[in-house]
Amino acid sequence: MIQESDIRIGNYVSYFDYNMEETIFIVEGILKGYVYNSGLPLSKLPIEKVNPVVLDIYLLARFDFLKGDPEYGEDANVYSLKYNRLHSIHIRHENGTFQPLTDAPGELVPYGRPIVHVHQLQNLFHALTRDELTLFD
């Protein structure tokens, strides 16, 4: 289950259908305990049936994050996404944990709590850039 206050329009979340298969969808609306998407059964689900999507390396790559290249002196555990010509978002993946990093003189330093779910990464990206973080094929 996910808290209504944790998600916003544009977040990727999921639900389990009658066959217990996880279906991921994009939040199109949130109102009075329901999450709306035109592709859902009855176009809405009670918030109690909505689940966060767990972040993994595959999804990080689908969001267009690039793995660091040791040949260029980059850390192979750091994934980066350039969002304008000067700035990037950096995430370190170690021991199953995704830790946001920020630029400091001569290094990247951790900040905040580790990211566990896709909507948390999307919300961080939106807070920093005011743009949507969407999946790329």
Give me a quick take on this structure:
With 137 residues, the chain is mostly beta strands.
What does this protein look like?
Helices cover 13% and strands 34% of the residues. With 137 residues, it is mainly β. The strands form three sheets. Strands 7-8-9-10-11 form a five-stranded antiparallel β-sheet. A three-stranded antiparallel β-sheet has the order 2-1-6. It has a three-stranded antiparallel β-sheet with strand order 3-4-5, with no helix packed on it. A hairpin with a 2-residue loop joins strand 10 (97-104) and strand 11 (107-110). The longest helix has 12 residues, at 118-129. It is elongated. The mean pLDDT is 92.
Tags for this entry?
mainly beta, 5-stranded antiparallel sheet, 3-stranded antiparallel sheet, 2 helices
Summarize the helices and strands and which ones pair or pack.
Elements (H helix, E strand, L loop, with lengths): L11 E5 L5 E5 L2 E3 L2 E3 L7 E3 L4 E2 L4 H6 L3 E2 L10 E5 L5 E7 L2 E8 L2 E4 L7 H12 L8
Antiparallel strand pairs: 1-2, 1-6, 3-4, 4-5, 7-8, 8-9, 9-10, 10-11
